[in-house]
Amino acid sequence: MPKAFFIDTSRCTACRGCQVACKEWHQHQAVPTLQRGTHQNPPDFTPYNFKIVRFNEHKIDGKIKWLFFPDQCRHCISPPCKDAADAYVPGAIIQDEATGAVLYTDKTKQLTIDQAQEVRDVCPYAIPVRSEATGMLTKCDWCIDRQRAGMKPACVKTCCTGSMNIGERADMLALANQSLTKLKKTHPEAQLLDEDYLGVIYLIAEPRKLYHEYAEHRERMNPMSRQAFLAMLARPVTRLRG
Ligand code: SF4
Ligand code: SF4
Ligand code: SF4
């Protein structure tokens, strides 16, 4: 049975426990950054940061509000990054049958810099990053080693607010819809994000455009990539539905 994450951003306190747990589990080195006038750190994904808690600050109904967004790979059900990589190096990106995890293998080193950039460009959420040190494309691996050992992913395990959840896809969809109905009573603009197409289902409380720049990334996507993204959304979801 495919798995899914349900991430309820309305419960997130931006403690960054998930970000740190992800680094710790993967034994990722520290990444030096500069103070840029925000609590978000580092500014974007790196080969050593698969999870980033994004801080978005807005004035809503006359009050300053922080909208937190624990960002990571969505483990798309029909991943466009895999399709793009398959055209050059079959097997560079694989999908785990048991969980639905989209996994980048050592073979991603065989992609040229331009091909790797193409894989990044087709991702609607601007997730993959190429490591200069190893030549590998990197991103969240859904803690597949932990999942295969019957453990929760490190980020889910550490989150104590109920924001991060993992389970069977059908259960997570049900929980997401239940939480959406509840949240809509106080936040009429609340919505789930692309839930039919993704292994990671987000619930947001405010309009989508108020949450970080992946919407802009979509606008910047070259026409071919945008076409691939729209095709992904239009594709029947058959691979891992359940
Ligand atoms: Fe938000 Fe939970 Fe991550 Fe803390 S651990 S930043 S509450 S998702
Ligand atoms: Fe690939 Fe991006 Fe989808 Fe993750 S979110 S599976 S990197 S296309
Ligand atoms: Fe990091 Fe694992 Fe969570 Fe992915 S699932 S963000 S690799 S801790």
SS-based class:
alpha+beta
Chemical compounds bound to the protein: iron/sulfur cluster
Which stretches are poorly predicted, pLDDT < 50 over at least 5 residues? 236-242
Largest sheet: 4 strands, mixed
Domain tally: 2
Examine the coordinates and then state which fold CATH places here, giving the name of the CATH topology of the largest domain. Answer: Alpha-Beta Plaits
Q: Into which percent range does the helicity of residues fall?
A: 25-40%
Overall shape: it is globular
Indicate the CATH architecture of the largest domain: 2-Layer Sandwich
Mean pLDDT: 90
Number of DSSP strand runs:
10
Lateral arrangement of strands in the main beta sheet: 8-1-10-9
CATH top-level class of the largest domain: Alpha Beta
- Reading the helices and strands in chain order gives EHEEHEEHEEHHEHEEHH
Content of β-strand: 15-25%
Radius of gyration: 17 Å
Commentary on this structure:
With 242 residues, the protein is α+β, with helices and mostly antiparallel strands. It has 2 domains: 3-75 and 152-210, Alpha-Beta Plaits, CATH 3.30.70; 80-139 and 213-241, Alpha-Beta Plaits. Helix content is 29%, strand content 19%. It contains 8 helices and 10 strands. The chain has helices at 17-25, 80-86, 113-122, 144-148, 154-158, 169-184, 214-220, 223-234; strands spanning 3-8, 52-60, 63-71, 93-95, 102-104, 129-130, 137-138, 164-168, 191-193, 200-204. The chain has a 4-stranded mixed β-sheet with strand order 8-1-10-9. Strands 2-3 form a two-stranded antiparallel sheet. β2 and β3 form a beta hairpin. It is globular and about 50 Å long. The model is unreliable at 236-242 (pLDDT under 50). The chain binds iron/sulfur cluster (3 copies).
